[in-house]
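Methods — Computational structure assignment.
A single polypeptide chain was analysed. Its primary sequence is given first, followed by the predicted tertiary structure written as structure tokens.
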Amino acid sequence: METTTISLVTIIAEGVLRERLLDDLKRLGARGWTIGEVQGHGIRGISENFWAGSQVRIETLVSPAVGEAILAHLQEHYFTDYSVTAFVHDVRVVRAERYV
């Protein structure tokens, strides 16, 4: 079986950012994503917006260049003012043409 290494970007953010983040991902080159509602606690404690709605976990499979662009965008536009965590992993996938 042939596999290709691409990037899995995971974003965990305040639920109120959901649609805004999805618009950003699409504009930055992500072809699709998976979303789930999550709960958590980090160094900032529980977000003020936590009680107003769930946090979201968004995962997308993208080329390494798109993954880097997403992380840079999040750092520039979200990390200072919002509860957002993001990380990237190299993953091996079958049918990479679907994602990149």
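Note: The beta strands are 4-14, 34-38, 55-62, 84-93.
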